[in-house]
Amino acid sequence: MPDVVVIGSGVVGAACAYYAARAGLTVTVVDRGPVAGGTTGAGEGNILVSDKGPGAELDLATLSARLWRDLAAEVAGGAERPFGDLVEYEPKGGLVVAETPGILNALTGLADRQRVHGVTAVAVPPEDLRAYEPHLAGGLAGGVHYPQDAQVQPMLAAAHLIRLSGARTRTGAEVTGLLRGAGGRVTGVRTARGDIPAGAVVNAAGTWAGEIAAFAGLTLPVLPRRGFILVTEPVPPLIRHKVYTAAYVAGVASDDAGLETSAVVEGTKAGTVLIGASRERVGFDRTVSLPVLARLAAQATALFPRLADVRVIRTYCGFRPYCPDHLPVIGADRRTPGLFHACGHEGAGIGLAPATGRLIAAAIGGAEPPVDPAPFLPGRFAA
User: Fold this and answer.
1) Can you tell me the distance from the alpha carbon of 27 to that of 166, in angstroms, rounded to the nearest whole number?
2) Measuring CA to CA, how many Å separate 366 from each of 12, 117, 359, 361?
3) Residue 313: is it exposed, middle or buried by C-beta count within 10 angstroms (0-12/13-18/19+)?
4) Span 71-95, pLDDT tens digits
5) Mapping DSSP to helix (H, G, I), strand (E, B) and coil, where does residue 58 land?
6) Residue 255: per-residue pLDDT
7) CA angle, corner 360, sides to 359 and 362, nearest 5?
8) What pLDDT was estimated at residue 190?
9) In the prediction, which pLDDT does 28 show?
10) In the chain, helix, strand, coil percent, each to 5?
11) Backbone phi, psi, residue 180, to 5°
12) pLDDT for the residue 251
């Protein structure tokens, strides 16, 4: 019997498995699909501090950025190359640009507040923007450079974290219920392929985490927020950083259920360019929206005119696990002993995964948490 069953093999579940194993626990990861087959597989791989205002999530993000750097440098599990090479870790930094002086004032004000929380943020006047990005459009009011921002290939990251954890992986095994013991304690999971008893269960089911909580009679308000990505043909190096407009920060914090888009553009090691970002609450509707794709393409070419001559070779969409208060749900559920949650990260799950794994491992093992867990605890939804 494993000490821990992790429901979900996305990057958050993988990080929970990895850090639980490092704490000396035996782990089984269970997923109804393949490894990283949900939101993680539809992500860009963002590791960001730049898009978060001062507060609990920014503290979690700065910790996580350090943990990603530490992981990237490790050579473990019989690998011949550092973990960072295996998962295409790129400490490329982010460049946030403002179209108008008013937006720039708001952006630099945010940067001032972020610096107090350990964020490195360098103001970039308009005449210096092309020193960072030679192909950037003219006429911008300025920007801020965030050297702590980075990127990984999210599916590789999830797969290698699980491999390094040594966890047993049960894919194609949908969780259909929770095993309960004395006093209602969760003692494992029921799956379509049989029961898996365990000392603790971690709900890392992403957008579907509310369904897992419901098996325990709990309400967890994790909702899907759809987003589309465009992928271009491979091109010679064109974009050096993750580049986005200041509107992206507002979109992350917005409660609007309607469509919101903002230009987010970055290259990959494979030479393709990823273009986002859109957000809308439409349930689990995967219908391709040509107007949304056209808007994303137009915003990207306005930021990088050279992209107008580059072909899009595919598009995809995913569902960010959105919580109404814009904070993830991490920690023990005091309403149901034995059940822990690691979900609700919206679009920040890849970046926040290592810190989330550390918090979960500490909560299960009774160790000192790396940051204050109180803002993320599921008890805030008890009412």
Assistant:
1) 8
2) 20, 27, 10, 8
3) exposed
4) 999 987 777 799 999 999 999 999 9
5) helix
6) 65
7) 65
8) 98
9) 98
10) 35, 25, 40
11) -125, 140
12) 56
Amino acid at 199: G
Task: Report phi then psi at 85, rounded to 5.
Answer: -70, -40
Bridge partner list, 29? 6, 169
| Residue 181 confidence (pLDDT) | 94
At 173 the pLDDT is: 97
d(CA 141, CA 131): 15
Please report the sign of the dihedral spanned by the C-alpha atoms of residue 259, residue 263, residue 264, residue 267. positive
Q: Write down the pTM of the prediction.
A: 0.95
Q: Is the four-CA dihedral 258, 259, 264, 266 of positive or negative sign?
A: positive
Q: Is 310 left (phi over 0), alpha (psi -120 to 50) or beta?
A: beta
Amino acid occupying residue 375:
P
Instruction: Residue 59: name the closest of 331, 375, 377 by CA.
Output: 375
327: its two tokens: 């904070």
Tell me the backbone φ, ψ of residue 179, rounded to 5 degrees.
-80, 140
Give residues with Cβ within 8 angstroms of 21, minimum separation 6. Answer: 27, 164, 165, 166, 167
d(CA 349, CA 247): 20
Cis peptide before 277 (omega within 30 of 0): yes
CB 27 within 8 A of CB 20: yes
CB-CB contact of 327 with 57 (8 Å): yes
What whole-number distance in Å separates Cα of residue 365 and Cα of residue 356?
A: 14
User: Which residues are CB-contacts of 78 (< 8 A; sequence separation ≥ 6)?
Assistant: none
CA distance 207 to 227: 13
Q: Which of 15, 36, 57, 100 is nearest to 252 (CA)?
A: 57
Contacts of 95 (CB under 8 A, 6+ apart): 124, 129, 132, 133, 143, 144, 145, 146, 241, 242, 243, 244
* Residues in Cβ contact with 305 at an 8 Å cutoff, skipping those fewer than 6 apart: 135, 137
Structure tokens at 280: 């809308």
User: Are the CB atoms for 374 and 253 separated by under 8 Å?
Assistant: no
Q: Which pLDDT belongs to residue 99?
A: 93
Q: Enter the tokens of residue 190.
A: 């029921």
> What is the pLDDT, as a whole number, of residue 250?
64
pLDDT beneath 70: ranges in the chain: 250-257, 383
